[in-house]
């Protein structure tokens, strides 16, 4: 398979991050709404149904689901804190209401652009004073998992992290050392949702259905 790259964001790098310890587990409650901008729970994305073996069928219907992540705050603390704050919305903005704007089967799902919704926007949480529009790569301690389910930051090159993230659906080892990996999809139930959302995408990344996958709620679990 030809190597693919994560879409580029913008801006200059900022200084190294300050480290904050806090939590182990963060979850995204992922459901789709009739209008992707709506902050509505209990709606559904429209897309192919998976069978009992996780294979895509020809049946198209509305669906809902939840993705839970294990976030490695002990090893990637600043990046994890940024993600946590955007999940909770404690800064006054965050992921709630934003969509997965780029979905490529056999590659990844990308989201987190809550300002423009097209991969050119987003911004970090104020996890330190004057964090700026982008923050530095914290470390590359974790590699992309041999299987699907890595959680990592999208960027436009070195030291350009903001709010956009991606979830892999295959092993993407060519991205090691280029994108900060800070967590993984927690369980099989969550991976089923990831695979269902993957089925809505295309080779160009454009979601094929009218109701794109949208994060209608998100929050934090205590350490487990």
Gyration radius, rounded? 16 Å
Provide the β-strand percentage band: 15-25%
By helix and strand content, what is the structural category?
Answer: alpha+beta
Distance between the termini: 37 Å
Number of separate strands: 10
Mean pLDDT: 81
Strand adjacency order, main sheet: 5-6-8-7-9-4-1-10
Which series of helices and strands comes N to C? EEEEHEEEEEHE
* Main sheet overview: 8 strands, antiparallel
Helical proportion? Answer: 10-25%
Shape: globular
Number of helices: 2
Unreliable residue runs: 8-26, 31-44
Could you describe the 3D structure shown?
With 224 residues, the chain is an alpha+beta fold. It contains 2 helices and 10 strands. It is globular and about 50 Å long.
Features:
224 residues, alpha+beta
Topology:
Blueprint: E1 25-30, E2 45-50, E3 56-63, E4 67-71, H1 77-88, E5 102-104, E6 108-111, E7 150-153, E8 165-168, E9 181-185, H2 188-198, E10 215-221
Antiparallel strand pairs: 1-4, 1-10, 2-3, 4-9, 5-6, 6-8, 7-8, 7-9
What is shown here, in short?
With 224 residues, this protein is α+β, with helices and mostly antiparallel strands. The protein is 10% helix and 23% strand.
């Amino acid at each position: 398979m030809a190597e693919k790259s994560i879409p580029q964001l913008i801006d200059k790098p900022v200084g190294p991050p300050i480290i904050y310890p806090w939590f182990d587990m963060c979850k995204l409650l992922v459901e789709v709404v009739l209008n992707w901008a709506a902050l509505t729970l209990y709606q559904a994305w429209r897309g192919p149904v998976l069978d009992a073996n996780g294979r895509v069928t020809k049946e198209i219907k509305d669906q809902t689901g939840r993705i839970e992540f294990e976030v490695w705050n002990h090893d990637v603390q600043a990046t994890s804190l940024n993600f946590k704050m955007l999940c909770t919305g404690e800064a006054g903005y965050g992921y709630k209401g934003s969509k997965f704007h780029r979905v490529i089967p056999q590659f990844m799902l990308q989201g987190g652009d809550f300002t423009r919704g097209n991969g050119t926007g987003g911004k970090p949480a104020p996890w330190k004073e004057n964090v700026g529009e982008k923050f530095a790569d914290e470390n590359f301690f974790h590699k992309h998992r041999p299987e699907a389910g890595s959680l990592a930051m999208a960027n436009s090159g070195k030291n350009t992290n903001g709010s956009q993230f991606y979830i892999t659906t295959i092993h993407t080892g060519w991205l090691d050392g280029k994108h900060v990996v800070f967590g993984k999809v927690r369980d099989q139930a969550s991976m089923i949702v990831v695979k269902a959302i993957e089925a809505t995408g295309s080779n160009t990344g454009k979601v094929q259905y009218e109701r794109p996958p949208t994060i209608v709620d998100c929050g934090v679990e205590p350490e487990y």
